[in-house]
Amino acid sequence: MTDTEANIYADSQTYYSTGGNSFNQLNVNRVRSFVMSKSIQGKAGHIRKRRASHDEMTKPRKFLIDVEETKRLILEQEDTNGDFQITIDDMGPKSLSVGTADSGGHRKFEIRGTYMLSNLLQELALAEDHGRKHIVLDEARLNENPVDRLSRMIQHNFWDGLTRRIDADGLEIICADPKNRTADHSPRIYIPFGEDEQLQYYNNVAETRPHLNLEVETLPKEITPEYVKSINDRPGILALAMQKHADNQGNVTLKGVPFIVPGGRFNEMYGWDSYFETLGLAVDGRIEMAKGMVDNFVYEITHYGKILNANRSYYLTRSQPPFLTDMAIKVYERLTDETEEKKTWLASAIRAAIKEYHTVWMSLPRYDPITGLSRFYPTGLGIPPENEASHFDHVILPYAKNLGLSIKEYVSKYQSQEIHEPNLDEYFLHDRAVRESGHDTTYRFEKRCAHLATIDLNSLLYKYELDIGQVIRTIYDDRFELDDGIVETSAAWFDRATLRQERIDKYLWNEEKSLYYDYDTVKREQSVYESVTALWALWAGCASSEQAEKLVKISLPKFEVLGGLVSGTEDSRGTIALDRPNRQWDYPFGWAPHQIMAWRGLENYGYMTEARRLAYRWLYTITKSFVDYNGVVPEKYDVVTLNHLLKVEYGNVGVDFKFVPREGFGWMNASYQVGLSYLTHHMRRALGACTSPEVFFNRSRMNKEIVIEDVTKIITTVESEDSQKQEEIETMVVEVISSTTFQGLSNEIESKIEPIANDSVIQSKAAIDNIKSIG
């Protein structure tokens, strides 16, 4: 690439400041002579007919674009529903004429179709971000393979858009809380007890940056449910880890350790979201950011006693599904630091995980001493404050009517404890537990969550026990010292894992139905709700090979639909009506964490065919919406109808943007990057062409039969006297066919046969060519 050329697929900052778009390369005189109002058709009095989306292309094209004028015209002509996006729902002609760069804008070319036009709109917005009024735009950037484009946007744009840090420079962004429904919206930060250096830092920020109106408060040494309830009318952000930093003048100050937020109204660091985001960051090589996520979790356990639901004051009594051990190990494996430095870093994470294990998950009230299993059972008092004001009206109304009070009056008296209502106390206990589970909300947990020993939580804790034991044995020579001087060995942790596995089998596994279920520790019976989190046992490794086989062959089909895995079965959800609306963690909705956990679990037990198939389904759902809806990457999908425009509680985060998506959604971004690693080259090509799973897998089944037939021809051509070679080839072909998903099968067949076969052995050239063409 020459100095005047730019990488066509570079990030927007690079693309719009180098090559043909650098200020010293762009021919300003040529641009000025280029009159957009005459060169672009489709103005008043001329309605352009809708046309097909593709022209024959003889060579790569570049367009000379007046950014502001083209943006005005494309919105005027194509954005018929006025949402500042170009989607398949818009009824414009889907065709816009632009000038080519090599003609100085005088020769015209039609940009056609929803995908290219929406990409044009996005590129115009990105060019404006970098102050460009005129640009030279490569056509290849508009018709880029959507898989490549989305993956590139996640890696170079979305992660940056979701990055936050808590310090002087980041406070203004992070303090904003769309969930705050109190009258007090003052920016406020709570500092842990004993963090005097941070307290001094933030007091200085409040003094030197008065425009922030920052209020700085210190938490007490012991954080009780009563205290947390007392500050619900003064919500604020909770401080996270900081590190010393020298500025340009050599002055040492503190700087926040960065982290990723989910996006939209979720403008803080969330518990289990962060694990999946870390997996995506690792795929994209952002190891320092991933390391910072772990460091912030260690800080939370150290100062707040747990990994928080999220770092807002109203979450102080609530945790979320625990993933710290696997998260830390994944980062550790990718660190390039010196070995001892890496080991020291990992040790801090493992010590924090051990503390969390004992003080949170293996202590009352979360620990159930009868079953020996754990539950989502947060402490806390009153009504969860982060919801819309009317969210619980339907629950409170009967109690208010009974006392002749309005809902507002009743809530005030209940919150101040003038009214005591045990039934409401239990309702809100379960509601908080649902939120701690991360699955808010679902009929699986309604009015009983705190009583359930769930398969997901206990699978995660089994993984903690196994991870801690393996780390102690393999990295620390089976001797790991805690902060209080106690020395841990691997044996105790492996014993804990074995015991939990036995209890999971006893209470959660249902042999008759070949599925894991939650166990009600109060009613002493299994739940009947069929949840896809049963597959988490495969991720954790606590299922036997026999249980895994039954899960895959008997239970997996219950959850597999067109667009991936549903959260639960339709039968388990029950009938939907006006007084019993859809819940977002039930059928027909699919979520990124469920997909990733299933892929990894299936991979653990050797079911790569199923893992790849499910990954394709999910990535197709994301890619199709990305292509059809202006690059959207939302929080969740209806995976039955492949719809992201959902009528369900809380709506769908990530869909409300103008011109160009800036963030995607945290774990959705991660699922895309992780999911691509499961696809073969053939699958990725089909995904880029937006080939429906129904079409793709039906065609693959037909092609697999052809491959098997042709492989049989190859085997029969082996020289009869060379029986040993024939047996070797037969064995390898059977192995490939039985253990490999068809996509990419031909390459594997060829690579396995080639080392032991020669021209005299393989005589059916047509057969091997057929295999190549299919693969």
From TrEMBL:
Stretches assigned to the Neutral trehalase Ca2+ binding domain: 74-100
Source organism, top-level taxon: Eukaryota
One Pfam match: Trehalase_Ca-bi
A GO molecular-function descriptor: alpha,alpha-trehalase activity
Broadest EC class assigned to this enzyme: hydrolase
UniProt keyword DNA-binding present: no
Swiss-Prot/TrEMBL keywords: Glycosidase, Hydrolase
GO cellular component: cytoplasm
Family: Belongs to the glycosyl hydrolase 37 family.
Name the UniProt record assigns to this protein: Trehalase
